[in-house]
Specification:
six-stranded antiparallel beta sheet; alpha+beta; seven-stranded antiparallel beta sheet; globular
Length: 428
């Protein structure tokens, strides 16, 4: 850690003003003060060891629409905030644009779809509250639907880049440009500063991981096109740019995409900033473009399953049984199963709660995105119910009162429960 920029825990420095984003490489950025308990690391500077030749094009700012400032955020006239960093979320899908558009239509997504290279597609999902989009959930669904690989990209407040790798519906790798961003600072009941990593609590003077995590160029190279320079990609992922200065996360993300020979135009922006004139070949997908949940002969059905399980049964293993058995019935089906460790408020609902209480000795709840051939939802649910009941009965020897029960909930309840599932299983 640079002694000049080290910050003593519990002694926040004055708030620095945001620098001019036109020249990010000329700006030395001090460690930010603890504006929020989740963002209080003592230093955010990566160690710089590599030649500056990897900084090519860093002074060329990403193209933004007219209503977005040169800092990469909305101008004040559009309701933006002056002293905030850049944040956006999107996906990069391996596949043909037409196939991605079809899959998004089947999933009921609202998004811009932009070519990023041959066989590589950027997806900009529409944001909701607080200008955020649940890109990890969409990445999992698209990956499972197309049986392909997907990157979910998150840039947060110009401070950190998160990239998760999905394959066939499963998350297989995680990258973070600064692991200190994962530290969750808080004040305990005794007024003492502490931090969490995962579910483990530490005292304020304990060491915590710093620098990038998951910076493996071999994982990301297959997402590129042409001849990907592994050395250049590795240096970029690690943020080793030959000087003791830190670049902003949006420019680091841009460099990562360029190191994979991808067009960063659609991968370093968001739905709220997108204009078709600035993104050649962009296609808009709207939920109203098709019948709800229907695309290319496949229908999306959202359903909650509550079943009894033995006390020693593995919740996730049972979820994988549900995901796999749907492919073995008379009707072609596939599923993404969200395993609910607990019920989250409104995601539960009275019907789910009552069904769980009737399951003895243990009830388990699963939020399931089910896709079936054709447009007959009742036929899809009946086919799934039949194979699920038989599979769970055979595996766990369920008694009569433990048989799985399917429950219909509102889209809002389902989305809340599915989004907060502890684990996900997809049809293999």
């Amino acid at each position: 850690m640079n002694a000049q920029t080290a910050q003593t825990i519990g002694s926040p420095a004055p708030m620095p003003s945001k620098p001019d984003r036109h020249h990010p490489t000329a700006t030395t950025r001090p460690a930010p003060p603890p504006r929020h308990p989740r963002r209080q690391p003592a230093s955010r500077r990566p160690t710089a060891r590599q030649p500056a030749r990897y900084l090519h094009n860093i002074t060329t700012a990403p193209t933004r629409p007219d209503h977005v400032s040169s800092a990469g955020r909305p101008n004040m006239s559009t309701g933006g905030t002056q002293d905030v960093g850049t944040s956006y979320e999107n996906l990069m899908v391996v596949g043909d644009l037409a196939d991605v558009v079809s899959a998004l239509g089947a999933l009921g997504a609202d998004a811009w779809v932009v070519p990023a290279a041959a066989g590589r597609v950027a997806v900009l999902p529409r944001e909701h509250e607080y200008n955020t989009a649940d890109v990890d959930r969409l990445a999992r669904s698209v990956s499972a639907t197309l049986r392909t690989s997907v990157l979910s990209n998150i840039v947060f407040d110009s401070d950190v880049v998160f990239i998760n790798v999905y394959r066939n519906g499963d998350r297989i790798h995680e990258y973070v440009s600064e692991r200190a961003a994962l530290v969750d600072w808080f004040i305990d009941d005794n007024g003492e500063a502490k931090f969490r990593l995962g579910d483990v609590e530490y005292s304020a003077d304990a060491e915590y991981p710093k620098g990038p995590g998951g910076a493996d160029p071999d994982v990301f190279a297959p997402f590129g096109v042409g001849s990907v320079d592994l050395d250049r990609l590795g240096v970029t992922l690690r943020g080793e740019f030959g000087a003791d200065e830190r670049i902003f996360a949006e420019f680091l993300h841009r460099l990562i995409m360029k190191a994979m020979n991808l067009d960063p135009a659609g991968l370093t922006t968001s739905f709220r900033w997108a204009r078709q004139d600035d993104l050649p070949g962009a296609v808009r997908v709207k939920p109203a473009d098709r019948a709800p949940g229907v695309a290319d002969g496949w229908t999306l059905v959202k359903v909650v399953l509550v079943t009894g399980l033995p006390l020693d049964a593995d919740l996730v293993a049972a979820g994988q049984i549900l995901a796999d058995t749907v492919a073995r019935g008379s009707l072609p089906l596939r599923a993404i199963v969200g395993c609910a460790g607990v019920l989250h408020g409104a995601a539960g609902g009275a019907d789910i709660f009552m069904a769980q209480t009737r399951m003895r000795p243990r009830g388990a709840t699963y939020y399931i995105e089910l896709q079936g051939s054709g447009d007959d939802r009742r036929q899809i649910l009946d086919a799934a119910r039949q194979v699920w009941t038989q599979a769970l009965r055979d595996r766990y020897r369920l008694a009569a009162g433990q048989q799985p029960q399917l429950i219909n909930v509102t889209d809002e309840q389902f989305d809340l429960g599915f989004g907060r599932a502890t684990d996900y299983c997809s049809t293999t």
